[in-house]
From TrEMBL:
This is B-cell receptor CD22-like. InterPro entries: Ig-like_dom, Ig-like_dom_sf, Ig-like_fold, Ig_sub, Ig_sub2, Immunoglobulin_dom. It comes from Clarias magur (Asian catfish). Residues 1-80 form the Ig-like domain. The keyword Mitochondrion does not apply. PROSITE patterns: IG_LIKE (PS50835). Keywords: Immunoglobulin domain, Receptor.
Length: 82
């Protein structure tokens, strides 16, 4: 798994985090983490998270995993908000 995200974003703008997988699973469900906690605010089945508009509370360390393979999360990426 690979997490693609901007390193820094300006508050009020939008940001897209994308989880890329190289395996050929049919319709995988993606699990998103922020600061090692499950992002359960809404069920994000998609491989993308849209932060719109970005606020200072969105800053943190993000990672993703595929359901059933939670023990193999992506390397974390830190998102800074300025």
């Amino acid at each position: 798994l690979q997490l693609i995200a901007p390193a820094e974003v300006t508050e009020g703008q939008s940001a897209v985090l994308t989880c890329k997988t190289t395996c050929s699973l049919t319709d995988p469900t993606f699990i998103w983490y922020k600061n090692r906690r499950d992002l359960t605010t809404n069920t994000i089945r998609s491989n993308e998270v849209h932060l719109q508009p970005v606020s200072s509370e969105d800053a943190g360390s993000y990672s993703c995993a595929v359901r059933g393979y939670e023990h193999l999360p992506s390397p974390a990426r830190t998102l800074r908000v300025r």
